[in-house]
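Q: I'm writing up a methods section and want to include an example of the input and output format. Could you take the sequence below and give the corresponding predicted structure tokens, formatted cleanly so I can copy it straight into the document?
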Amino acid sequence: MLTQEEMYDLMYEVRGAAMEVYNHFGPGLLESVYEKAMIQELTLRGLKVESQVPLTIQYKGTLIGNDLRLDLLVEEELVVELKSVEEIKDIYYKQLRTYLKLLNKEEGLLINFGEYDLKNGMRRVTVNEYKR
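A: Here is the clean output for your methods example:
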């Protein structure tokens, strides 16, 4: 588990990677293009990244679903949800919060490559305050 400072550093690095990808491709491509480029950029930066991570949903010890997949998990701690849409909707925040809760993670980034200014397209999402 990362300290709050380490998490901030990791988020900074992921945001930098997103800016690099955005500067290369610009806005408006398919999400899958940005995902592949993010994987490559994060790897080049020496970070461990997993993509399309399957999530299992259990309720009282019984598997009730396994059809969810998160876009990126960086350093086994930071959940990154990628979008390439004109406008971020509330459902995307709910989606990321769901992933965070199911994985018992506290922080995530929602990155929308559909924005014409990527700084406006990056949002930090927290489900629990740090208890460290």
